[in-house]
Amino acid sequence: MNENRGRFLTIEGIEGVGKSTQVARLSQALSERGIDHVVTREPGGTPLAERIREILLNCRDEALPPVAELLLMFAARSVHVNNHVDPNLKAGRWVVCDRFIDATYAYQGGGRRLGVESIRQLEAMVLGARRPDLTLLLDAPVEQSLQRARQRNAGAAADRFESERVEFFERVRDAYHARAAAEPDRIAVIDAAQSADAVAADILTMLEGRAWIS
Ligand code: TMP
């Protein structure tokens, strides 16, 4: 591996666990340490991938079958990885990505019950050997998280995922846990039921423990 390659860090979790807050705080902490990085997200992260995101989150006038949803997630990912993630990592920048491949296993595999096999095949096709160097899974009980998401969105229309029921998010959370249990070295589970300050501190401790920052 190219020694100057940047680190690829992804942040995962169900709606309302405080991902956006932690992504912003992490970015600030990296800037304070002079670490050159970009913040991005999935689905989206480039103009074209953001157009696919718009369909995924907000298409209402026609049904989007789960398999089409899965394929669009990977279409957006292929665009994002090739046009944004790879070039930045190659240039030595860290890439901090709000959701990535584990979200597909959790939402489409668990939530939509598509299972893991079709996702594995698409993952091999789209990502090849690419994997995040570290994934932070922000974890909190579903009821508490959804309540936080509802407060945050007060007044705004819920998107296609936010409109799902509690059972959907229980399946998503279970699938995230299964991923973390299968890959404990890559996926670090962070207790997101704590205060935002405590979560941010845990994340920095995690990075210090790996000697990525000091
Ligand atoms: P968010 O970025 O505001 O959380 O919205 C993105 C939504 O997309 C979120 O509900 C999770 C969902 N999603 C999937 O279902 N599968 C995926 O692979 C990704 C990246 C996101």
Short synopsis of the structure:
It is built from eight helices and five strands, in the order βαβααβααβααβα. With 214 residues, it is α/β, with parallel strands linked by helices.
What does this structure look like?
This protein is an alpha/beta fold. It has a single domain, classed as Rossmann fold. It contains eight helices and five strands, in the order βαβααβααβααβα. The chain has helices spanning 19-32, 47-58, 66-90, 101-111, 117-127, 142-152, 166-182, 196-209, and strands at residues 8-12, 37-41, 94-98, 134-139, 187-191. Strands 2-3-1-4-5 form a five-stranded parallel β-sheet, with helices on both faces. α4 (101-111) crosses α7 (166-182). The longest helix has 25 residues, at 66-90. The radius of gyration is 17 Å and the shape is globular. The model has no long low-confidence stretch (mean pLDDT 96). Residues 15, 41-43, 73, 98-99, 103-104, 107-108, 161 line the site of thymidine-5'-phosphate. The site of thymidine-5'-phosphate has 12 residues, from α4.
